């Protein structure tokens, strides 16, 4: 069990391609703002690919979701309206025109792994989610990845080396396999201190309650 004075580890398992991951992250960060540092945390982003076989050219989002989930364009638009509303409630602005296409996100996850080593993972995650869900840009495009890295405060030359190589491919696949073997089949999946799981694009109050409860459990005489 973690020490009572150590930060609560949060593993945010997600994919750039997932709009609910953008909602869930914004909800978590609103919760952290509300807690105002009263519950110390350590945030890590973990990779998950919703479409690992997606080709580089991507696929029309309506066609892809229709085939994958059996939904009609009308049903998809209704879902997107709900997602836009939920995003707006926590401060994330989705592109009203939608994403257009689904893209391969493996290189984005490699770049995020490197950003974690550089201490800028959270900033890069924000830049990638904004580029894709807010601006409908391809998160698999090397130029988009480089622009996001620079926006996140990462070294451009270092980012370029990672993007144009297969660095951290094995590490990303290992992390993906780890979470799949431990039962993670949908995202976002938010794991607190390797023991509590919160799934879906939850509102801030769900995270506030869970983090306060976990912090209280740590200080309990029976902990």
Layout of helices and strands:
Elements: E1 8-14, H1 19-35, E2 41-47, E3 59-60, H2 61-69, H3 73-89, E4 101-102, H4 106-117, H5 121-134, H6 142-151, H7 156-163, H8 169-181, E5 189-192, E6 196-199, H9 204-219
Parallel strand pairs: 1-2
Antiparallel strand pairs: 1-5, 3-4, 5-6
Helix pairs in contact: 1-9, 4-5, 5-6, 6-7
Summarize the structure.
With 223 residues, the protein is α+β, with helices and mostly antiparallel strands.
Question: What would you say this structure looks like, in words?
Answer:
The chain has 223 residues and is an alpha+beta fold. The chain has one domain (8-219): Glutaredoxin. The chain has 9 helices and 6 strands. The strands form 2 sheets. The protein has a 4-stranded mixed β-sheet, with helices on both faces. It has a two-stranded antiparallel sheet with strand order 3-4. α1 crosses α9, α5 crosses α6 and α6 packs antiparallel against α7 (156-163). The longest helix has 17 residues, at 19-35. The chain is globular and about 55 Å long.
Rg calculated over all Cα atoms: 18 Å
Question: Which spans of ≥5 residues are poorly predicted at pLDDT below 50?
Answer: none
Beta-strand proportion: 5-15%
Distance between the termini: 8 Å
CATH topology: Glutaredoxin
How many strands appear in the DSSP assignment? Answer: 6
What attributes characterize this protein structure?
two-stranded antiparallel ribbon; alpha+beta; 223 residues; 6 strands; single chain; Glutaredoxin; 52% helix
């Amino acid at each position: 069990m973690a020490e009572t004075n150590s930060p609560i580890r949060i593993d945010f398992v997600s994919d750039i391609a997932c709009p609910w991951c953008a909602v869930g992250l914004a909800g978590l960060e609103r919760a952290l703002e509300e807690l105002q540092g009263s519950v110390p945390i350590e945030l890590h982003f973990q990779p998950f690919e919703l479409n690992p076989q997606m080709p580089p050219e991507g696929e029309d989002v309506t066609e892809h979701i229709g085939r994958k989930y059996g939904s009609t364009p009308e049903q998809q638009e209704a879902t997107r309206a709900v997602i836009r509303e939920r995003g707006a409630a926590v401060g994330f602005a989705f592109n009203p025109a939608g994403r257009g296409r689904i893209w391969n996100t493996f290189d984005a996850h490699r770049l995020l792994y490197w950003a974690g080593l550089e201490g800028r993972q959270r900033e890069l995650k924000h830049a990638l989610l904004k580029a894709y869900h807010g601006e409908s840009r391809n998160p698999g495009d090397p130029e988009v990845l480089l622009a996001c890295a620079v926006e996140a405060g990462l070294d451009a030359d270092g980012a370029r080396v990672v993007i144009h190589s297969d660095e951290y491919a094995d590490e990303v696949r290992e992390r993906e396999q780890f979470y799949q073997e431990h039962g993670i089949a949908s995202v976002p999946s938010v794991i607190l201190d390797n023991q509590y799981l919160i799934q879906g694009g939850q509102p801030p109050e769900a995270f506030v309650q869970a983090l306060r409860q976990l912090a209280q459990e740590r200080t309990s005489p029976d902990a």
